Amino acid sequence: MPKTRKPRAIWVPPPRNAFQLRVELLHIQPPIWRRVLVADNGSLGDLHHVILVAMGWEGHHLHAFRFGQGAKRLEYGMLIEGLGDDSGVQDENLVMLSQLIRRPGQAFGYEYDFGDGWEHKIKVEKVLPFDPSLRLPVCLEGARACPPEDCGSYPGYEDVLRVLAKSRTAADRELREWVGDYDPEAFDLEAVNRRLQPAGERRRTSPRAPREEG
User: Fold this and answer.
1) Chain centroid to CA 11: how far?
2) pLDDT per position as a tens digit, 128-146
3) d(CA 187, CA 179)
């Protein structure tokens, strides 16, 4: 991965609200999704980390957040040394969620790995008063595992599912060996939250969100 610039220090106010966000990987059925709760004073860079952990991505590739459409679209990501400041990408570590998220129902995009192009939709489900007794961020629920890293985008993911069901050729068997013990239906909520909230830092988690099918 290209060398990123060191983030500049910024003053972070205390949180006032918490955002309940639904993160869904697009173009895949049944859907792969997560529901997370984050403080409004976190940066987009912080949200990037939450998405990596909650979804299960390894974090070896570039990414971008996108707000708005057309000429008004704003793009945020990690600034790369040597690319200058004219790329149009703004530093995700210098903008807080409270500066970009305005209301429930708002949606914005997140793309991980520009080669495979994994596109996610992030929808703001709720804006809640911040509860200091909660340890944030926290993942509330979700479904299914994200695709294996570097599997070749959506067509490659379909190939993975196919060979998991039945391997017919030598190439299929080779791909099956590469996939290893990958389970497309697996999602371990407790394991996700252990990574989001290291031992010694966990407090009471948020009440479980209403159950969602699919």
Assistant:
1) 24
2) 999 999 999 999 999 999 9
3) 17
For residue 62, the 8-state DSSP code is -
End-to-end CA separation in angstroms for the chain: 34
Q: What are phi and psi of 177, to 5 degrees?
A: -65, -40
- CB of 27 within 8 A of CB of 154? yes
CA atoms within 13 A on the CB side of 49: 14
Measured CA distances, 72 to 88, 90, 119 (Å): 12, 14, 19
Domain boundary assignment for the chain = 17-144+187-196, 148-184
Q: Which two tokens stand for residue 28?
A: 């895949």
Per CATH, domain 17-144+187-196 is 3.10.290.30: yes
Q: With helix as H, strand as E and coil as C, how does 111-136 read?
A: EECCCCCEEEEEEEEEEEECCCCECC
Q: Using CA of residue 25, residue 27, residue 32, residue 33, what is the dihedral sign?
A: positive
Q: What is the pTM of this model?
A: 0.86
Q: Residue 80 pairs with which residues in a beta bridge?
A: 4
Coil/strand/helix, residue 108: strand
Residue 71 has what DSSP assignment? G
Instruction: Tell me the per-residue pLDDT of 155-174, one tens digit each, with 9 for 90 and over.
Output: 999 999 999 999 999 999 99
